[in-house]
Amino acid sequence: MLGSTSFPGSIPSLRETIRRRELVAKTLGHILSYQSRSSKDFGAKHRRCVDEPELDLEDRMKPTEEGESLIEDIASDGEVIHLEKPLPPKVSVGEHDAVCLYARRVRLPKWDREAVRFGFQIREIGPANEIVLNAYANLGSPRSKLRLSLASKLGRWWRTLADFDPTNIRRDRIALAKFKSYLFRVIVRDVEVDNRQQSIPVAGRAQVVAEIVAVISRKG
Questions:
Q1: Nearby residues of 169 by Cβ (< 8 Å), 6 or more positions away
Q2: Better-predicted residue by pLDDT, 124 or 49
Q3: How is residue 213 annotated by DSSP?
Q4: Measuring CA to CA, how many Å separate 102 from each of 87, 118, 119, 175, 217?
C-alpha cells in the first residue's frame, strides 16, 4: 500500500514519513476530485475536452473542497486538548476511610443555589489511597433568609461530628474548617446522571463522596 513501502534493512526518517503521509493525503484528494467531477454533466465535460486544449494534468487533478478538507483533517490528527485536571483512578463503590482536605462555600448560579464543596482524600492501604473525590452539600437559594435545616446533608454531617466530639464541636453553628480535623468513614458512589438528568454510560461515570457514615478519630 502507498505510504507503507519499506526496504530491507532501512528505517524511514521522520522527513520521509511526513513526505509519504502528504503523498497519501494528496492522492486521496485526487480520488475525491475525480469522483466528484465525474458525477457532473458528462456532456458538457465531453464537449470541453473536444473543443478546448487539454488541461495540464496537475490542473485536472486539483483536489475539490471536500478533498482539501480531508487533507486538513489528516494533517491535524496530532492536536492535543488538555484537561482541567488529571482523571482520577476509579475507586470501588462503597465505604472507605477518608480525611477532608477542604470545605468551601460555592455559588451554583445555573441552579440558583449555594453549596459547600468538600474535597475528601481516601486514606487506606490499597490502590485508592490518596485519591481525592468531591462531595457537595446543598445550602439552598442565596436569597433565602431561613437557617439551615437539621435534616439537610450538612446538618446531618455536623450532627455526626458534634456527637463524636461534643467538647470541640458547637451544636448551634457550623465551622467548616472543623471538618479538616477528623478521619471519616465515607460512602463513594458513581454519578449516574448528568446536569440534564440524562443517564451517563457506566464507563464514563465520575465519582463522588455521597455520605459520611461515621467519624473514626480526631487527627493528631
A1: 158, 161, 162, 178
A2: 124
A3: E
A4: 19, 6, 5, 12, 17
E strand or H helix at 189, and its extent? strand 182-190
Could you give the angle at the alpha carbon of 56 between the alpha carbons of 55 and 59, nearest 5°?
90
Mean pLDDT for the stretch of residues 24-46? 57
Phi and psi at 74, nearest 5°, equal -65, -40
Tell me the residue type at 147.
R
Q: In which residue are the cell numbers 438528568 written?
A: 197
The single residue listed with the C-alpha cell 446522571 is 193
Q: Report the amino acid identity of residue 49.
A: C
Is residue 196 helix, strand or coil? coil
The pTM (predicted TM-score) of the whole model is 0.64
DSSP secondary structure of 10-39:
----HHHHHHHHHHHHHHHHHHHHHHHHHT
3-state secondary structure of 3: coil
Residue of 195, 217, 220, 218 lying closest to 206 (CA atoms):
195
* Rg for the chain, CA atoms, rounded: 32
